[in-house]
Amino acid sequence: MSDQDLIDLQEVAPAEVGEIDLYQRREKIYTRKIEGYFQRIRLFTGWPLLLGYILLPWVSWNGQQTVLFDLPARKFNILGLTFWPQDFPMLAFLLIIAAFSLFAVTTLAGRVWCGYTCPQTVWTSIFMWLEQQTEGGRNQRIRLDKAPWSPEKLARKIAKHSSWLFISFVTGLTFVGYFYPIRQFVPDLATLNINGWPLFWTLFFTFATYINAGWMREQVCTYMCPYARFQSVMFDHDTLIVSYDKGRGDPRGSRKRNTDYMDLGLGECIDCELCVQVCPTGIDIRDGLQYECIGCALCVDACDSVMDKMNYPRGLIRYTSEHELDGGTTHWLRPRIIGYVLVLCIMTGVFWYNMLSRIPLELTTIRDRNQLYVTTDSGAIDNIYTLQLANMDRDKHEFMITISGIEGAAIIGETSHTLDGGEVRTITLRVRAEPTLLDKPSTKLDFKAAATDSPSLQITSESRFMKPL
Question: Is residue 398 within 8 Å of 420, Cβ to Cβ?
Fold first, then answer.
């Protein structure tokens, strides 16, 4: 920021306070570009997220797409692991762990997720950067929107919206690539050799990204995101929040540089409103904590740049806690944080125990209920069973089916079955037993499926064997 910019800012009059109509037309927010320490951090959190989102479907793991939610096959490949519908409790448990992690981070450091890694924030920042590149700085954009249509204005608007649509299309295409093999999807889309649904969802998410990040922006955070509404429940007096230090800054007022503001009866805030002009949600952080604040620290960097120009110490607007603002100190280790950490450790341990002990095999046994039993000519008793065997491993295995629980009982039918990775097979079997070996009308019978090439890959399913009363 130049010295002339600083002078211009000092001449800006404080904003007048008036009534707000909840149904009034949205006023467009023209954000000023600012650089600083926290914006460099956002650069290193936002861009890796974007690049990871775009590149992850193109990365292969053991010959398969790293992340692929294959809905027709009802299997989900995630970082080398294959999950099936019956594994949904594990995925739900993982989402619960992620939610608890978000709650813990929010209690400790406020809305850093919103300010640094939320997809809405990241994509909006990219769209704002493209807007600045095509239409210029804040004042230039204001003048451009007020100016009558001309070839230059049309060219700038076309350049902006074309770049927005390009990013939106890449976003939509990549999202569909998480559900449709992307190495097949892109060539099919390029040659229009594709059915309607993948094309529909690509256009749908292209349009959604274009509207959310390009047009709605702060309205998504203010009106649509539920997190902004219940964040205060997780805050306490030691939570780090972006705050304005009224004790240092008030009373506000403009002054010349190198003037002793104390002699003027003023605080350190020069009332330049730069913190308002850089805010993506259009709030004035000096009015206190507001639910629209996403903790992006743009106002912190803007204020620090002004403090440097005025030779004042930084931190008039900073990450701090209510305790610190009141003259106390921030308590980092407090019961709520300790509780969150303990719960997260337990939940993470349970999740990984279940993951490591998970057997990628499923066996379901259903006894024929239309015919409880069959008596053979020799007097033996037969029961008919339908087995559903699912090989949830990536590799092909040969499985042997055996029974236990009834001495002398035998399987009538094929007991060896070879299943490809991800194959589900329905098997019909008869089990025969002599009535003299059965002392009850209903006897427990266990079916066991075990891989011949992997002793650890085995599973048991329980059923009942029926005989005449």
Answer: no
